[in-house]
């Protein structure tokens, strides 16, 4: 008995795995499966496409370019880089109620926030409130690491340095008088950004933490004075700063500036004339950029975007068309072949 | 006394040592002194100290050297250097793209996986080394004046060791003493060459006549021998005694490490080579490394990938330069100055960017491809190894894959070169017929019996006649089947006993022993002329002694038959004379009998009294007792032919009862035991194609040469008969008739051998001997001298007769050949056998068809002579068969397939000439089958090399014997048959098969699978990497060609290594495009691999285009979907990564033809792994992983409906073309698989299919079109010809 076992010691195991006989499913793509499959996929896609398209259509978007390239533009005089503290006014009207909540974006074009060396130029430790990094910022911030007096720049790096600094005020013209539309600057950045990722150093008052440091070269005010109206919205957790620090994916982008959710405008912007007051600071002409303001409301799928709905519709129709072609081919070839 | 003898030896030794010091390196020989002379001296005094000791260390690394050495070895692979270069580039701040530490991860991962594998292998080697080094052996110690136990590793060159029976030799040892009365020592060399027969080794002649035990203390000779080398069959040198006498040393004196002592109770020897310098270790080569065709092709495409990479980088660099240039001096706010605070010029930034891009796009060169291929190949080897259908129960052997990295080559073979004997045939030799002195003895009874066996169930027969390499008594008895395998039918009662007895026999087969004598020949002595009678006796004596067969007894396995009972006066006297002849090297010796054989035979007819006069053995004419005694003898031969002949002779009661190096004892009917003094054995070699023994005939005292060899050579050496005398005429007639019979035998497919003899006068012998001894003692060119010496001896022979031995075809050979043929494989048979035999076997295995025109190329002696000069010998072709030659040119193109080319060795020599090889190939290619007979091993390998190099085809050589080794090594894939003729072929091969018929499944099924799996996997790899990298490339257009990536660096680096790695490995290992049954039923499918249809150069580019298309879709759908939104870089990039992963996995799904649970699991695992890693990574650290810092990105995405909508539509759009393509083209192969899915064999694969498939079936049909068409043409032609 033992001997026999020894004899077959080197006999391979007769299992489905070793003999490569594992039960296997081979996709049987016969016409009976493929054609109905295509029809089903097509119908489903058309359904989704219609839903997306309708949703997208329901979204209102209003874009206002205020770069001031054209001479007629109210902001033309501001576009000269030598003019400081320029304020310009843009008037527009809304024909019917702009349904709320309305999101107020600023947009830039031809602006490469995704430029590789630009994106690297920041110090995450500093931005999370590490005081050591205040005195000696990371090399990655170079050359916006120290100023000419060799004082550390806080927040360092190119991203922070180039922070967008135009400010906007929106007025509704009611009977010839300007009525300011209240902006909600809370919650425009990611919750995790101002609660987890970015922290101010735990020093009170905040300005003490910045002793011995200088503000970024392009900044008018230091980081701890970014929002004079709300002391909690200063330093690295200033929401405008956070929005800026989240780099845009593409060179033409918009960033959320404020939401309009309060007071009379909680339901949206009523029809009427409006005036947008812009503190024009940010230079874009050097790189042929454009600046704009976008007013938009959003749906479950985000902002207005017709592409996806159309794509679904096209692909869905394509599936249907293909299933019809296949059906014809099937009908044509089935019978001669069967003979 | 011992003291006295030592001192001069000491001084002499030190003199030698001083000489050695003067010219240490020039010495071409090794000098070995006995160590015990130096026991007291310091280590440096010992002249042997320079030689390696016996500790073996096969490990490559030590603890310290592991890291540097392993890394050094790994960096021999260019790809690794490239990846390390890129990883290091990342540490340069100006150009870095990723976190430098992270960029190291893949390289470190790949390197460490390989390193761990190497370390494990090395550890296992270390363990086994330790085990071997700590084995015990007995070494003589001068201090204790006895043999003491020591470890193997403590053994040194010059030590005396004592060996006991069944011990394994620890080193290469010169045999100085043996307990065997004949001063012999038997060894089994199975571990070296796989041959299980015992080999005799001989005590060095000078120590031959020591009466008492060998005393190491008295030893004071010096041995000079050659430097260590790996030739197992060569050892030469001499021993210098104190007296100044020199004695030559031969390989017969050397016991090799690793062999086992058998049959000898005790032996003493001195260590000559130790440790790594032993022949066994020098022969121990590592596994073979070959590069497969697929891999060569792949490397070309890797090269293309590099080009694509460089082009992409260059494009990006130029783009970046222009982008920078457009801003001119006006620096945009988002620009970043150089660290020095100055502006970078566009050109400088372009150059830096070029390097950055190489880092970013590095994934295009698939770092994990090489590792993945290795993993898949290991799995493939595992599956081949595990295949039940490639397992031979009889010998309990698997198919062995000895080369691990050419499995896919099996699917691409175009030419098969096969040996005949032992490969196509069983190599179990059966004596069938013989002719003696021109009279044919047909052995009809034998033939009848054989024919009857063949009718029987072959399977049963297989069980009983199993290959005799392993004694397997139990299995055989359990397989007992009551057919007359073991003896003639009427005696079936005796079968069980007979089988038990015979299966003990390790190296001979039942059939070999079992010969029914031809009654006509058996009764000869009473009815024939004396001269004929003498020829008959000589014939059998030649059969019996002209060989190297060792006799042993079956009851005590591996115990030599001791000739104690037969230690007759006669033999002992001859022993004494032997020794005197050895010492004096003189040829004259006295003999107790000077009468001729014939006289003896005449006397034998008269009363027994005379018998006693020259044979003290009690005469036993009682047939029964005689037979019983004989039945216990067993013959172990190096080649089965020899054993068959000895058994045949025994059937005629002329049996070999003992063989000593100097003497062969033969038992003859009526004469009893005769001891022939064996003067010389001129062994068989493939050039001479014959062997000879020189003996002194005990009765006549004549020096007789018996020669046995191929008929072609022997016939040329026959003494031209003196036509004048009547005897001469008769002789001529005999030669002619023998030649006729030989032709007849060959036509029957028998292996023929001619037996001849020659009687030397004493003067002739003395003359020859003198020159022979010179040759033997020569150190330089000894082989050549011995060869010439043999040629001088083997002339003017007297023909005795010829034998025909049958070698049956292996099971399933014709079927296998037929189906390999159908698979489009060209099969050439290269054999050393004679033409007629080879042709016959070729007919039997359907290699040639009777209706085929044969195209014989054999040059006659005259032709050879006349064309030997400046003539172009190729003309022989047309002259020898003008009709068929011209017909092959004039006839329609496909008629060439009727032709079979048969070419013999002599002609082949011309054909392989540089000027003619092209013509030869042209002729050979137009023939359906090619048969080269009488070819030498060298010619075999030359033919393979020629075909391989000139036709640029994939070649496979299959063979079983040592003569096939060179051919096996030359071919792309070498296959060895682990059969009867030892293991040399297996040792040299890449794959070792137990039987020829397994070649069918190995090639048609496993070859096809391995090839198609690997080809698809490699293509998929290229596709996958290109697709992923192209995503980033498209992005460069939107980020100022700045080398920025929207895909997080972690995903970028681990995408290949982790997220998408497993499914392709599973598919690469398990996918079956066609089921095994279909592949075997439709061998035509093999053409797929031959034409490399799974992986053609254009397919790489198709894949690239597909990859670029898919990446465009995966890039631009999210691009448009997120256009004009406030999406940030990585919130936009992560969906793209996800989409790419889905697309890549679904693409693999389309490529996968069979889905097992493992495929599902691996894909599910990949997706789960990606999301798990992404979620963990995005939640782990809020401030780490600069610059991407993707905290909470994935979490937010999973709440975004847009993300899911993208995940649905993008892979569908991306894969729609390739999916429709796959609907359109389930190529010929998969159409066949359609029917056979679910394991049904598919008689009509089309029936289950839908419309597209019907169309595609047509396409598939057209695809095999040429092949089938040609086949059809052939069939019709053949049919036509038959009419």
Automatic annotation (TrEMBL), chain A:
The chain crosses the membrane at residues 33-54, 310-331. It comes from the Eukaryota. Keywords: Membrane, Transmembrane, Transmembrane helix. It is found in: Membrane. Its main location: membrane. One of its GO terms (biological process) is phospholipid translocation. GO terms for cellular component: endoplasmic reticulum; Golgi apparatus; plasma membrane. Belongs to the CDC50/LEM3 family. This is Cell cycle control protein. It comes from Sparus aurata. The lineage of its organism: Eukaryota, Metazoa, Chordata, Craniata, Vertebrata.
From TrEMBL, chain B:
Residues 1-31, 461-488, 577-612, 1229-1251 are annotated as: Disordered. Keywords: ATP-binding, Endoplasmic reticulum, Magnesium, Membrane, Metal-binding, Nucleotide-binding, Translocase, Transmembrane, Transmembrane helix. Residues 44-101 form the P-type ATPase N-terminal domain. PROSITE patterns: ATPASE_E1_E2 (PS00154). ATP binds at residues 419-421, 642, 684, 708, 751, 831-833, 934, 940, 963-964. It is a multi-pass membrane protein. Residues 600-611 have a biased composition (Basic and acidic residues). Its main location: endoplasmic reticulum. The chain crosses the membrane at residues 78-96, 102-120, 302-327, 347-371, 1018-1038, 1050-1070, 1100-1123, 1129-1148, 1160-1180, 1202-1220. Residues 14-25 have a biased composition (Basic residues). Residues 477-488 have a biased composition (Polar residues). One of its GO terms (cellular component) is phospholipid-translocating ATPase complex. GO terms for molecular function: ATP binding; ATP hydrolysis activity; glycosylceramide flippase activity; magnesium ion binding. Its EC number is 7.6.2.1. Residues 986-1221 form the P-type ATPase C-terminal domain. Its cofactor is Mg(2+). CDD domains: P-type_ATPase_APLT_Dnf-like. The active site is at residue 419. Belongs to the cation transport ATPase (P-type) (TC 3.A.3) family. Type IV subfamily. This is Phospholipid-transporting ATPase.
